Amino acid sequence: MFRTLRYPLSPWREMERLRREMDRLFQDFPSRYRINMAPAYPAMNIWTNENGAIITAELPGVSPQDIEISVVNDTLTLSGKREEQECGENVRFHRRERGCGRFVRTIQLPFQVESNKVEASLEKGVLKISLPRAETDKPRKIAVKAS
Amino acid sequence: MSNETEIQVAEQQKQEVVETEAERTRDRKAFLPRTDIYEDGDAITIVADMPGVDESTLDITLEKGVLSINGYVEPELPEGYSLSYAEYEIGDYQRSFKLSNEIDQEGIQATIKDGVLRLMLPKVGPAKARKIAIKAG
């Protein structure tokens, strides 16, 4: 679809082109693994193989009863609450970098999960959820017969 | 427990330590742990988030008025799995604080639980007689 351009050298077009070039440059940048920006708290890493997935998240200071994990088909929902600091009265803050409050995150996996075999453990503030793949979703190997 | 707000985190990604004077000798990255520092009448409390660190992998040293916190993380990479999506990196934690004269350096206490380090730095009272506590072990 072509539009007739009234101002052939519009500065916006140049900037758009520059932005596209920069995006391409950063996408092709070789790195061991790309770190994506987490859309919400907490940041998660996903490890996969053909039998399932393991999801790790850093949740320091959260106790296991404050975390809810639910799995429906291929979607995992992780929600919970980080408790506020107990500090006495008459307190003055010098730094406040840690947050507290509710968090909810949903992740969609590329396969269906066997929901009654999901295990989760929380150790030293690191949450590890192992999600085995549903048996019905595993790829079936088809033998090729030579005729 | 009146209003439960959405959790707000200052910066999403972990901040890496900027190496100014001496370089690190370990081959892993070091990050600055997110810290809350607050002060009341008797003590200054430092609370730092260090997931993956427990009391055996934590080093706290106080030298010439500078308190340094070093937490070492042994990454548990799942065997047989490959990383397909990463939003955070795993590394050690390191942060230093300069303490003023009003801290009683003998009375600093540290506890770590669930990856959260809590440091209690008591303040020296102006005319308080200093008692030296003797701890066993």
Description:
- The complex is a heterodimer of chains A (147) and B (137).
- Chain A is mainly β.
- Chain A has a domain at 38-84 and 100-134: Immunoglobulin-like.
- Chain A has one helix and eight strands; from the N terminus they run H-E-E-E-E-E-E-E-E.
- The termini of chain A are far apart.
- The model of chain A has no long low-confidence stretch (mean pLDDT 81).
- In chain B, 23% of the residues are buried.
- Chain B is elongated and about 60 Å long.
- In chain B, strand 5 (58-63) and strand 6 (66-71) form a beta hairpin.
- Chain B has a five-stranded mixed sheet, with no helix packed on it. In chain B, strands 3-4-10-9 form a four-stranded antiparallel sheet, with no helix packed on it.
- The A-B interface holds A 33-38, 41, 43-49, 53-54, 58-63, 81-82, 85, 87-103, 122, 124-126, 128 and B 4-10, 12-13, 34-41, 44-45, 47, 49-54, 76-78, 80-89, 114-116.
- Strand 1 of chain A pairs antiparallel with strand 7 of chain B, so a sheet runs across the interface.
